[in-house]
Amino acid sequence: MSGEDTLVVLVNYKTQSEIKQLISGPLDDLPVDVVIVDNFTDSGLRTWAVENGVKYIDSGGNVGYSRGNNQGIEYGIGDYEYFFVLNPDTKIIDEDVFSELTKAIRENPETGIVSPSIIDQHGVRYTLPSKPEKALRKMGVLPELPKDSEHLKQVDHVPGSAMMISKDVIEEIGYLDESFFLYVEDTEYCYRARQAGIGVATHIDTEVLHYSSESGQKFEKDYQIYYRSRNRYLLARERFDIPGSLIYSAVITSLLVRDVVNIVSNSEFDLIKPLILGVFDGITNQSGRTRY
């Protein structure tokens, strides 16, 4: 692998088999460089990376998704123009995905974060929840979206499972927020970019396959629901002024009601506790790795 301007950042936490398959498969023949940031000390990836000529960084433990990606970006910030944050449980199905994403950013300088279209293994395309953010734009909490271009659909945020970020964006707004530890850090980063006047978009003509959030399935469900619930409220506090924070909190509380309905309908009552703890810790500004 020899990349001219793009570094792919892969963060491992008990996904070493997926990482090996991803690097040995589609990434091996594409003009990008790869760095593995290892959040799982006993993964055995160090030896494999050395044998296969892949850059390896030991993060020092489970430092979280945000910090892991930041370590990878920090490693390459002096040598690369673009950074592709990629989940291990993905598959590159368009060989020109990297060239198309970087080309789109170059041709649309007002846009600095671009994601390919995400589909799952059943061919279902991932769509963002647009109604809450549309309401937030109408109330002035989020800025209005720029106009779409030929290949780019402007959105409020893109999923961090496959996200191309230009170096210019990182130099302007900084790195991923490590206080989130896991989940919602991609939304926060995109909101931060949008508030700085940087466009965030989905490339409608390229695709990456993401296997139904299997990275999350490596954790227990209580782990997921705790951090998602907590981090939504952290986002409200960190990204908006007091009126905007109150409005955003009201919107995410409606999502909380939806989560409760899903928990009850599926008789997964053991998830009520992590949900309540997540909301409490979010409201009381408990950040980083907590409880789980």
Automatic annotation (TrEMBL):
Gene3D superfamilies reported in the protein's UniProt record: Spore Coat Polysaccharide Biosynthesis Protein SpsA, Chain A
Protein name: Glycosyltransferase
UniProt organism field: Haloferax volcanii (Halobacterium volcanii)
Any one GO molecular function term: glycosyltransferase activity
Every Glycosyltransferase 2-like domain range: 9-173
CDD domains in UniProt: GT_2_like_c (cd04186)
Source species taxonomy: Archaea, Methanobacteriati, Methanobacteriota, Stenosarchaea group, Halobacteria
Keywords carried by this UniProt record: Glycosyltransferase, Transferase
Family indicated by similarity: Belongs to the glycosyltransferase 2 family.
InterPro entries: Glyco_trans_2-like, Nucleotide-diphossugar_trans
PANTHER family from the UniProt entry: GALACTOFURANOSYLTRANSFERASE GLFT2 (PTHR43179:SF12), RHAMNOSYLTRANSFERASE WBBL (PTHR43179)
A matching Pfam family: Glycos_transf_2
